[in-house]
Amino acid sequence: MTFPVHRPRRLRRSEALRGFVRETRLSPAGFVYPMFACPGKSVRTEVSSMPGVFQQSADQIAEECREVAGLGIPAVILFGLPEKKDETGSESAFAQGAVQRSIEAIRKAKLDLLVITDVCLCEYTSHGHCGVVKDGVVLNDPTLEILAAAALSQARAGADIVAPSDMMDGRVAAIRRKLDENNFADVAILSYAAKYCSSFYGPFREAGQSAPQFGDRRSYQMDPANAREALREVALDLEEGADIIMVKPALPYLDIIQRVRERFDVPVAAYNVSGEYSMVKAAARNGWIDEKRVVLEILTGIQRAGASIVLTYHAKDAARWLKD
Ligand code: PBG
Questions:
Q1: 292 assigned to active site
Q2: pTM as predicted
Q3: Per-block average pLDDT, block size 10, for the chain (324 residues)?
Q4: Do 206 and 179 form a contact (C-beta atoms < 8 A)?
Q5: Which of 248, 281, 292, 323 is catalytic?
Q6: What is the CATH topology of the domain spanning 25-323?
Q7: Domain edges within the chain
Q8: Contact assessment for residue 119 and residue 166, using Cβ atoms and an 8 Å cutoff
Q9: Best residue for ligand 1 mutational test, from 50, 76, 78, 120 (most atoms within 8 Å of Cβ)
C-alpha cells in the first residue's frame, strides 16, 4: 500500500517533527580544528587563500585554543612551520620546534582540549616532499625513522594523539614501536590511512609553506580513481596499530568514508581540507551562497557518510552556529 496511506511529508511538517526524526545530529563533539604553528612570539599572520586561518606563534595558538575549547570543540590538530628547512626535515623533531612549544603552551593554559599533531616532513624539508629524497626519488624506509623521531618529540611535548600524514608504507608500525619503547604506549595514532593525491590541498600548501619544489606526490599519495585500494590501506594501518583512521579529502571521497565505515569497526575521521574550505569562503564572499547553511550541510553530509570525527577549518563557525 502506498499513497494516500503513506505520506512522507507528514514527518516534515514542523521543525519539531523534523528534529525528532533526524538521522544525523551534527554536533561539535567530533570536530577537530586545524592550526598552523610558527616560530616567534606574538605572530599572527592570516593565510591569504584561507580567510580566518592564521600562522601563529605558540602564545597566540594557546590564546585561540582557549576560544576553541570555549566553543565546545574537543580537539585541535597542529601543523608546524620550521625556523629553517633542510634536506631531511630535521626540525620536525626539535624539542623547541613551533609545534612542540605550542603543545606546551596549550598544556600550561590548562585547557580541556585534546591535542593532535600532524606527523609529516613536507613543511620541514627544503624540497617540500614528505620523505627524504635521493636522485629525485622519495625514499620510503629511510623516512620512517625520521617520522618516528618527530612523533616521539611531539609525545614528549604532551600530544594526546599523533597523526601521520606522509603516506610512507610502514610508518604506523615504526611510530607505534618508537612510542612504546619510550613509555608512550598511551599516545594514540590517528592515521591518514586513505590520503589521496588531491588538488584540494592547494591553500594548505600556502599555509604550511609545503609545496613540493619538484614533481608531485603521486608516488606516495593515492590515486583519486581508487576505492578498493583505500580499504587495503586502512587494513594495513590497523594491522600496524592505528587507533583511528582517516579519509582525506572529504567531499569528493564520501563513498570511501562510507565503505571504510561499513568495513571496519574503528573510529573513522574525515578531513574537510583547505581547498574545500577556500571554495566555500570565496563563494560566500561573492554572495553566491549562504555560508552558514552550506557549511552545516557539508558537515552533516560528511557525518552522514560515516565520519564521526571531522577535521575542518569551519569548526569554530559551525560550533557557534550550532549553538544559536
Ligand atoms: C602534509 C599534509 C597536507 C595536508 C595535511 N597534511 C598537505 C599535503 O599532503 O600536501 C592537507 C590539508 C589541507 O589541505 O587542509 N602532508
A1: no
A2: 0.97
A3: 94 98 98 98 98 98 98 98 96 97 98 97 96 96 98 98 98 98 98 98 94 96 98 98 98 98 98 98 98 98 98 98 92
A4: no
A5: 248
A6: TIM Barrel (3.20.20)
A7: 25-323
A8: yes
A9: 120
